[in-house]
Amino acid sequence: MSEKNLRASGNGNRQNRWLFPVLFAAVIALLMFLFNLVSGGAFLEMSNLRVILSHIVYPSFIAWGFCFLFACGYTDMSIGGVIVLGSFASCILGNKLGIPGVVIGGLVVGMLLIFINFLIFTYTKIPSWIAGISLAMIYEAIAVFLKMGSRTKALVTASLEKPYRVLGQLPWSLVFLAVGLVVIYFLYNRTTIGLNIRALGGNKDVAEKLGISINKTLLAVGLITGVLIGIACFLQQSYAGQTTVKTGLTSINMIFQPLAIYLLAQIIQKRINIVICVPICAFILYAVFNILTVLGVPSGTLQEAFLGLFIVIFGVIGQRKVKGVVK
Amino acid sequence: MAENILEIRGLNKHFGPTHANKNVDFTVKKGEIHGLIGENGSGKSTLLSQIAGLYRRDSGEMFVDGVPYDPANPIDANRHGISMVMQELGVVGNLPAGVNVFLGRTGQFSRFGIVNMRKMRREAQAQFEKWDLDVPPLNQMTDGMMIESRKMIELARALSVDPQLLLLDEVTQSLSLNNRRKLYELIRKFKDMGRSVIVITHDIEEMVEITDTITVLRDGAVIGSVNSQETSPDEIRMMMVGREISGDYYRADMTPTYGENVVLEVSDLTVPHELEEVSFTVHEGEILGFCGLSDSGIHAVGRAVYGLSKPTRGRVFLKANGVELTSPTTALNNNVGYVPKDRDNEALMIRASIRDNFCLPSLTELKGPVGYLRPGKLKKLAADMVDSLSVKCTGIAQTMDALSGGNKQKVNFGRWLAKDLKLLILDCPTRGVDVGVKAYIYSLMNEAKAKGIATILISDELTEVLGMADRLLVMKDGRVTRTISRGEDFTEQTVIGVMI
Amino acid sequence: MKNRKKIKVSEIVPFAAFVVLFVFFTIVSKGRMVSAYSLKMLLEQSILTIVTACGVLFVVAQGSIDLSVGVNVAMSGVIGMHIAAVTGVGWLMVPCCMLVGLLIGLLNGFLVSKCHVPSFTLSIAMLIGLRGIVNYIQTIIGIEYVPASMQFITGSACRIIAFVVIALIVAFVFEFTRVGRYSQAIGENETTARFVGVPVSRMKILAFALSGLLAGIGAVFSVATVGGTTMTMGAFLEMKVAMAIFFGGVLVTGGSSARFYKVLLGSLSITVIVYGLSLIGMSDSQISESVEGGLLLVILFITILTNRGKKGWTKDEPEPAARLKNPTE
Fold first, then answer.
1. Domains and CATH numbers, chain B
2. Does C132 sit within 8 Å of A306, measured CB to CB?
């Protein structure tokens, strides 16, 4: 059938493998240069770069989480809600126990909730994104409830004490990013479980017939995503210092930027490993936001429009050669 | 040490109402190349799948090397020295070729949880070189590769477990001549090493050539085994088709009968990688047969005529209506019908009701003012068709998935007869249906012919095309290589001579 | 074999859910649920969801999803009202709302059918991007009120009549014309639909266009209810609409499980929950939100459970077909 049309693309030409990454790097460099020019030199200032770099860390972890989630065909819309709750836990425990509390709080709640989500996705067979919406509603409600329970009724934020925020600031956050990059790279590309997860995402039938246990693999995806989202929880809390309670499904807004990063990364993953793509794409995305802010484009309104446009454009480019059924 | 590597006694397997394997007795000796042949739906793939651990048998016994054998899964079968290259399994596209060879067993290359990719690639390369196969780029993703390379990766995967018994299900059809030779060589080596191979292929000549013994299956039962040296393709074909080969269910006349008016005119039709400058005409009341190997482009002709593929050159002109068929919608609106090959995935809405399936192609004809589709009309059409085709069902609201293959095919075929057709394209209309339904479908074709409908009959079964067609086009590598009229040289020998 | 039509368990679930919810809240609220006022409130609160869901139904029937309808309501409402305010011609708001909605829908349809962008990703992108633009516009022009000449649309009688007319038209188009049938066929099996000759990409564009058009009409209903535009217009309406449709028993795969009455039932059920909770004094957003979420999960689970028998059909040919590829599921 149509498979016959598939031509071998570049028959293992070794030079070709490096051509794209080099070109890609050149384009980014050019882009940065342009940004710098447009902003009159403000863009490449150290302080500005620090702002961008410290911003990309926790969205990168969420986007990495998406890499694993999408591999088994799940779209979890409740991740925003999970992050709000995880950040709360991180904050409350952090203010009590210091840095270890920050880490434990975020990690435990993040992992636990993602794990619950996975159990629901796997066993109820409800399409993940709808189940995710329901779960997001529940998590949002819990978050409101928790905050309402405390002294001031109007207070809808939880704030972490200053000294405990170091994990979300430079240079610690970059350490997390670097370590995360290496660990996740190996996990995704060089471990049996990573390969099995990708096989499951690529072709479930083949994976199953080759003796890969579907349930075990899904469980592993749940655990890995849980850890990644857990890390994102406490990094978010440490970065921002406070978390706003979201209601009326606004928590879903929180995953849009990581989703955009993931979609961007997915498009170039054929040439550059997706795990490496994620922070790069995060950097590009936030650099664009940064330059838009510098140029006076109002944030939260027109910048969102650019984000949407980004996703559409990259979606179109990414699906360019797709022939099959797309829903 | 037993003399037989594999022995099967009284094996049965059911899929819902289908009895896929009936009391199968089957033996493979050590160092034997055993061919398994039969028509589509005769149960050969099912049999291999059970040996390879993909399905559990319902009853019967299996012995490997004299020891009772009941594989829980393919991995278990591998442990017993049995591995299989499946007909449609394929590879995982988003993983590199090297990983695909060892997928599911990558743990054996890991230390401290990290898989040693280089070692795995080396090992994969060693597998290819050991059997003298071309090494594909092992660190490239497989989804960009040609089907042939992917098949070779699957072969390497099967070989990497060092099997005593290798099962090959329709492997050669996707290979080029060069790789086929290599595969034959590999099979010979297996024999020399005292190992065994079971081969399924539709190419009877190839089978006689490379095997020692051939077992023929029909309707799930073993018809008999013959020694390849002492048999001929004709004998095997006889065994495959059975006694019904001659007689009433095909046309009795041996002269072409069709009207003068040309219904369809196809000229220079070219679809990249599928068709090369195909030209032909179909007349009123004519059955035009297409035959060739399954990758010769015969199925592509059906798709292209119905407007499903984008030709780079040439045109499909429906002379009867004076329109060019460029899309399936144009075809549908111009009295053309198409029965695709893959019933469950291309033709039917398997979870929808019988009524919806019957009515789908006729909705345009059924609509009233402002597009109103009166439910009563739809119901009547479906009920009438169920009656006239005697579809066995509990009612028109029943969903398709509950029907047997034959009844599904009646719906698939019959829904076009509810329309006033000029041209009907049939791609393997009797695939996987039993003899009774088969005969019925031929009688429907004759009725259509009598009404003056032009028919394009595409089939993998040579006897069917020979039995029904007025003229026959033989295809090879996307081109029409010969046109034969009924009564001229209308024998299998002639056709096969051109086909291969 | 009897020719009697068997009613499937899966088709009872949405009815049962509605009845159980209604009876439950009637009892708990000590009968206040069945008062004329309550019933009218129920209907009025459901109107916007139902109207918007009517359009999304076509998209869902095809197995796709349109999550941009909420922001579409906001966009078309804001622009339509602004044009009416600027020109001073009150009635212009109605056609303008519809036109803007339609254009957004057409764009969606084009990107999904011609550029093969998965509808889920696309409509999420629209949701983000258009919301940004709407917010931007609103920071400049602020909120606007229904023009004096159009005050009559704020009356509930007018809205209910308009609603009934729209619902009847959509019911007719979806249940009794080729548009609905073809949409269902695409959801059942897109390959089959294409192989038969259904104009698949045209139908996809049409479905998204209808979805957009009805969102534009929804915008009129939205401003009519509130009396003007608001900053949070249409916010998360798309989620509510999706919930209503799936709550009503439509499967995400669409196909013949997509029926018009299910949209009505699903929307009403959700309103019954929200309104019922407020009747018994639990209108706190967190409680009603979590109850909604929890109930949605339970009912979806039951719907899927009762449909499961349908999924694992027995094939007459045992070859492993390479299906199961839906990234958004």
1. 4-243 (3.40.50.300), 262-499 (3.40.50.300)
2. yes
